[in-house]
## 1
Amino acid sequence: MDSFDLVVIGAGPGGYVAALRAAQLGMSVACVEKEKMLGGTCLRVGCIPSKALLESSEHFETARDGLKEHGVKVAGVTLDLPAMMKRKDRVVRTLTTGIDGLFRKNKVARVEGTARIAGPGSVVVTTAKGEETIAGKHVLIATGSRPAGLPGVAIDGDRIGTSTEALSFSDVPARLVVIGAGYIGLELGSVWRRLGSKVTVLEYLDRILPGMDAELAAEAMKVLGKQGLSFTLSARVTGARLDGAEVVVEIEGKDPVRADRVLVAVGRSPSTEGLGLDAVSIATDGRGRIEVDEHFQTSAPGFFAIGDVIRGPMLAHKAEEEAIACVEWLATGYGHVNYDAIPGVCYTDPEAAAVGKTEEELVAAGTPFRKGRFPFLANGRARTLGRTEGFVKVLAHEKTDRILGIHILGPRAGEMIAEAVAALEFGATAEDLARTCHAHPTLPEALKEAALAVAGRALHV
Amino acid sequence: MTSPDVLVIGAGPGGYVAAIRAAQLGKSVTVVEKGEIGGVCLNVGCIPSKAIITASALVSRMRQADRYGISVTGVAVDMAKLVAWKDSVVKRLTGGIGTLFGKHTIRVVAGTARFTGPGKVAVKTAAGEEAFSPGATIVATGSRPVEIPGFSFDGERILSSTDALALSAVPKRLLVIGGGYIGLELGIALHGLGSEVTVVELTDSILPGTDPELSAVVHRTLKKKKVRVLLGAKALGWKETPGGLSVEVETKKGREEIACDKVLLTVGRRPNSEGLGLDLAGLPVGPGGFIAIDAHCRTGAEGVFAIGDVAGQPMLAHKASREGIIAAEVIAGRPSARDWAAIPAVIFTDPEIASVGLTEAEAAAKGIETVTGKFPFGANGRALTLDAGEGFAKVVAEKGSGVVLGVHLVGPEAAELVSEGALAVEMGATLEDLALTIHPHPTLPETIMEAAEAALGHAIHIYTGK
Ligand SMILES: Cc1cc2nc3c(=O)[nH]c(=O)nc-3n(C[C@H](O)[C@H](O)[C@H](O)COP(=O)(O)OP(=O)(O)OC[C@H]3O[C@@H](n4cnc5c(N)ncnc54)[C@H](O)[C@@H]3O)c2cc1C
Ligand SMILES: Cc1cc2nc3c(=O)[nH]c(=O)nc-3n(C[C@H](O)[C@H](O)[C@H](O)COP(=O)(O)OP(=O)(O)OC[C@H]3O[C@@H](n4cnc5c(N)ncnc54)[C@H](O)[C@@H]3O)c2cc1C
């Protein structure tokens, strides 16, 4: 029986990063993954393929509608969907095989198969060849999550599917219904709208992008609506059924909607079925998530858990950060994640990105704050890109000026938010941000101006 | 005689920002501008050049659209439309400054200013002349392109950057003299729009002054684009030929005649300090024609401040704006000084270059021992989804303390990414601070985080050995 310092279950951004970092720190490491491709949800059927399609579909829309104004002419524009999908697959393959290479170089033992916890320090892997038991001084569970279902909606993986199917539709559905206006629904809804679908987004709440700042979400809805996404809010979907070649989606108190395909994007559930948590009495919470302490220890000694399978935002970089903190704590006794500075990005066009507290959270907590806002309309770089929608909002403490939250809707907001995270992480004040020299003409000048606006002294509004 | 609290000469990014800041601080302000509000930057510099670069990048992308699974036929450029769009961008922004001036009740005088004595300025306007004795004067007259022997701008064959930004047709063959950022930005943009481009550069490298490791990446893409680059080459003169122009160039291998249709001359800029009556104001002009200033943007003459391109290198819009704020705050009695840790510089080539703080060589020259971490965009997920895996991020830190001294990027959106580096340098962050800051996935700035990790010896997505 092979035995390791650390056995990692799952090779998503949580698991593979933990495996690599542990190997760097001198541990012997095995990583069990049931899929052929490493990289987990994120690389196979999440972040990466979705962004590849978002990029391609944006170019398609630009080619069709966005050139004339800039003095660029084209004679004909046609979509080659199989080629677009092939490019997406190529990007995924490059990155997932890159992880294989890193495993080899760092001498991480990769075990292909499905893992089940057999007892303390013991994991049984069902491989193509049979069962294999491996021992780990520490076992790290990073099994991630899978799309959540909705009562009454039978996901058939064809007409009624999840994000995984929506990343690989073989044709452009004439009518697509997206259930759920979180970032996954909006991103994939945008992809298919750009490629020609008529997209209707149904959302249970009375707003989109739950969890994000309400002002930002309201503006995003306006902009996305103008682009042609159609929203029905406060819509409780009670069922979806096939009717010939169509799908009928039933909504409580509203007329049913007919579509050619339905994308269910109502959240994700932790993956723990068949994992044998009971074998060592690992406790889970009411939502099926593995309970952990601040060092990611579960209720069973020697067993740890990180990523989508535990509490907190289901985001790849959160999983990665937990991976590093967990493994470094094991190796050195130090390791910490600052949950107040985890950014979130929605890659629609314009992008929405945020870090820290929303305005509603500050109001609810009774924290006195000042707000600075700056529109991209007044930013030179945004003008030269012809992309002027959205704004930056900086929230700072009224007394200390310390930055509490930054919310951006705009071009490349996802790239811009890194500076905001650093500012929050460094404990910067709005004035620190305002006094940092920002290059001209660049988009982050809008961040500087919003920081200036906190003190009522923006220059360009 | 009019006596505003503050008189600003020149309404570029230095002058207009100084005017707005002074007005915010309660001063009465008059701005004198002989040309257009917004100066070089908004009218014939940063803004129009970036608009043309945007359009050019669109053309290149459409020509390679099949990469994304889109077939696009018949890509062509409608230069008149492109120029109209660019002009509309410029007009919106300069109009915006005009509106802000109105809201801040800043008076604008259209005319040419000159000093007539200490603390005295005369402005020649269309209507005649107006005399001022302001409380303080801010000189923000900027700079203009320079010529070289044998080449004088004629707007027709020998073009300045200003002429190039107003072209009504894409030249078939363009010769760029001067491989600095202005020449390369415009050269690459026109290449994207269809020109055949040759670059002649006097020194041994394109983008002199830039970290050679960064410029090498741009040099490689120039080669891929089949832009011919002649280094260590000197343009001697030109003549008209039946088919266009012929430019004589002295190269390392001897003299060469290069045929082209237009010459773009971008060999540097010179401060606008002549004809201003600076001697009458009691203001000596320093080496290179720059006005010397202290940490508070004060000149040698009582009550006279200078900012921006006319006050010294680097000739960058955001440096001008920053000095504008400082001058205004000093005039208003606020404690304010040019004590920045770092000024970023951005270059909109393909791929972009952006840099803030010290390079390894600069640190070494100061006797500082450094550690460096590098991370390639080729190993960054976001870059691959964008089809832009060229280039890298580099973080330079002091050995031992790990204090970040510089962040240098060449790659996609480098200009937008460098502000995080500027903040890190400005706030005295360490490598670990950058490494432990959670960067969202998948985004380009993850490369900065991984470069910091690499400097610490443990990047995740590249193997750095043990
Ligand atoms: C469409 C979509 C887009 C997304 N976009 C983004 C984005 O832009 N940014 C972002 O931050 N996040 C994004 N996410 C979320 C992100 O993918 C997840 O947060 C992230 O993948 C979680 O990482 P993880 O390591 O915890 O789990 P996962 O990535 O889910 O990896 C878990 C792995 O464990 C394996 N596994 C499970 N059980 C077993 C077992 N018993 N034995 C062996 N292997 C097992 C699974 O096969 C899987 O490979 C997106 C998700 C989706 C669906
Ligand atoms: C093609 C090009 C691209 C550029 N791109 C960038 C870039 O991307 N980023 C960047 O940071 N910088 C860039 N620059 C440089 C930038 O434009 C300058 O650094 C900036 O404009 C300097 O600002 P300023 O206020 O000092 O002077 P200017 O912008 O030169 O403004 C000076 C103003 O003073 C007026 N003036 C002069 N003399 C008088 C007088 N006697 N009376 C009245 N008015 C007078 C002039 O008409 C002018 O409007 C670029 C420059 C060029 C040419």
## 2
Amino acid sequence: MDTISFMLNGVQTQIEADKNWTLLYVLREVCDLTGTKCGCSTGDCGACKIILDGVAKNACLIKIGALEGRRLETIEGLYCDGKLHPIQQAFIESGAIQCGFCTPGMIISAKALLDANPNPTDDEIIKALSNNLCRCTGYVKIIEAVRMAARLLAE
Amino acid sequence: MPDQTQQEHPYIGANVPIAQAALKATGQMMYTADMKLPHMLHAKVLFSTRPHARIVNIDTTRAEALPGVRAVITHKNTPNRYYNSCGEVLNEFMTEQLFSPVVRYVGDKVAAVAADTEKIAEAALKLIDVTYEDLPVYYDPELALDENAYAIHDHGDLERGNLILTVAQSSGDVDRAMEQADRVFSGVYECPAIHHGAMETHASLAVFDAEGMLTVYTPSQDTFAMRRNLATIFDLPMSKVRVSVPAIGGAFGGKIDLTTEPIAAALAIKTCRPVRLVYNRTEDICSTRNRHAMRLYLRTGVMNDGTIVAEDMRAFVNAGAYASGTTSVVWAMCGRLFKVHRCPNVRFVGYPVITNTTIGGPMRGFGSPQLFFAQQRQMNTISKALGIDMLELQRKNLTTQQGADPRNQQPHGNARPIDCLNRAAERIDYSEACREQLESENARYRIGVGIGVGAHGNGMYGVKADITGLMLKMNCDGTCVLFTPSNEMGNSSVTLQKQMVAETLGMCLSDIDCVEADTRLTPYQLGDYSSRGTFVSGHGALKIATSMQKLLAEVAGRMLEVPAESLRFADRAAIAADGKRVTLEEIVLYSRDHDQKELMCAESFASQAGVMSYGAHIAKVRVDTETGEVKVLSYAAIHDVGKAINPLSVTGQIEGALQMGLGNALSEDMGVDERTGAVKNRTLKRYKMLYAGDMPKELTVEVLDSFEPAGPFGAKSIGECSVVPTLSAIGNAIANAIDAELNSLPITKEKILEAIAKKTENKA
Ligand code: FES
Ligand code: FES
């Protein structure tokens, strides 16, 4: 077992894990943070997206050992003090959520985009979601939700 | 019963976000794989690497000796009862066992391990030694049908050999009509096995407690049939089996059948500890269920003016290794052939055949996507051959509002495919698109326009007792709890039930709490399948809300001293004609304190009509004749759903169906490696589903302003119907772009280049 410390949703955190375990496994099975989903574990679906030092990444492809000293955001970090994040609000209102399994990953990809680029074009939105699969929505309302989120965040 | 046609309805026709959306947006929604119980074990399954073999010997001693392993199960130490995994067929064609001494496809279950961690369970699998003796192998249903073919099953009452059952229906006199037709067109159409691709893979968590109660948490579309199957397999009374659905992360028909459930249950029973089994994506692709691969032979008799006088289809349906719901799929598909054209002479013969491939099961569209791919592709061919524009040809032959099934004259129910088609043509600017097609005829980038029409049903009326039971109880603050056998799997079916209740009782949506899909807690229903959600279960919700309204009105009438019938319900109150009101809270309290009575109801709704839903799609594509690449430039999908109860979800269903249908048309294909029998495309990298950037830039999704008299508030289904026309719209567009016949799905770059090369060759 190895000891790894990193910043998790704004809180300095230390965990015991084998450094070769994936970040996804550690989040779900060690930290009990199950909002981050597993749809493939091969980097193809984006259900496991997290934000690592400001960049959206697939947690299933990252070894926990690589987290030492880094800043990690998960879907759980967006909902604080009983208040939904504007991106979450926008996803709900736009009808961007059906079964909801892709939703945390989608919202994380959207967050990483909007943090870096508060006013993205449609092409930029599509590019930011280019590694996120959704089998339910056809992406139309997800793209709409990201547009709406940008508007809400600007207010 | 509220007036369903006239007055203002705050919740009917409103854009309502899906129930529990905040849980899904925050990651708080608990799916099965997210659940953990104290003392829980983790399971892994050993899958067959042989397509067809007898297990001569299986030695688990080394696996059992691995520290952390708590149980290893095989056919030797588990119940051997036969079952059919699909609730729609349940007591017929019982070909499957929990574990069998014979494996019948690559991916078949051989053994399973429960261990302290998933990693230990995985390591243990490698220590199980299996000796196989290979048996004859069939991947093609037509070969498996051969008289001398080895019978893959010796149990399950199949019709003969590997043929499960011949499904045949006809109307009129097809042979005579073919003889009298001016032209007869024939085509062969191939559809591959399709992965449902729900983002949540199959999973279950089973508990067997000291009271002898087996509880299985699982994303199930069919809790009651799963309970019945589990009770049979483990020889338990139903009072000792509970199937409970925490959430469903997408299903599309793939979560009707038992897959992981009996394995987790057997391990829980063996270890007396909770056991969680979660399939990874490869296991999900290879070892659950898929949309059937099919080969369809179609003959169409046509007069020179384009009138279709006869349609004759033969379908060879690859059931895969076990019967599952294949016959149900083929019956459903058979029925559809009689639902779209005015033609009186129609014949369908379907052969569902057992082979040594992955198991075909229910999937969105239930055979309709394949059937309409063939029929609509052939229409396109006919249109070209006769020089009649496809739009004209369609209008001439599509059924109308007076249309009825030629077999039994049962009305289709306000069928409006022509209106859908006209609207689609208008929205995509069909004539302009055809002009572009003509102009690009010799260019590198060819434009093609394709039309596809399709239909799907609304429940299982006439096939099965199509029942939904519901319960409703009032809380003493005027809110309520609805006990529904449905699960909100993403299609807004429970959301719609809440709309029905809110509308009828004058409540807010947030006043309604739901207990969902749990055999212990809710009444029975047939299942969350067969496009029953709106038409049947929605109607059930309307019925129970109406019963509750009666109870409330009776009390309120006495309180206000007015006739109960004169009350209307709005703003959380019962309101009399003169404006006097009592709130729901006051009514409930009065009932409790004064009448000493709890306000609650239970109802059962049985569907009494088998109406159809229709849709027309038009695609405009651009084909690069040098690379074979296809870009879907614009797409119009117009549907008739009667009254759209929740337009936000209806359009969402259609948009999602396009992701699935366009992927099915262009890139998705499980494939079989004929050397090993294994699925070829066993990861998401290889099994190519569409990402956001692959979707058409210009997309029009609309529903007609319509009303279905038999539906609740005039509504009918959309979920399945929306995927049906996609394959042919895209297929026809590409065929028209390069002026070639492309009848085998998916239409990949390679196939397009091949078709182009063949044409050039023929010219030379
Ligand atoms: S689970 Fe990580 S990309 Fe799919
Ligand atoms: S909402 Fe179901 S996968 Fe996206």
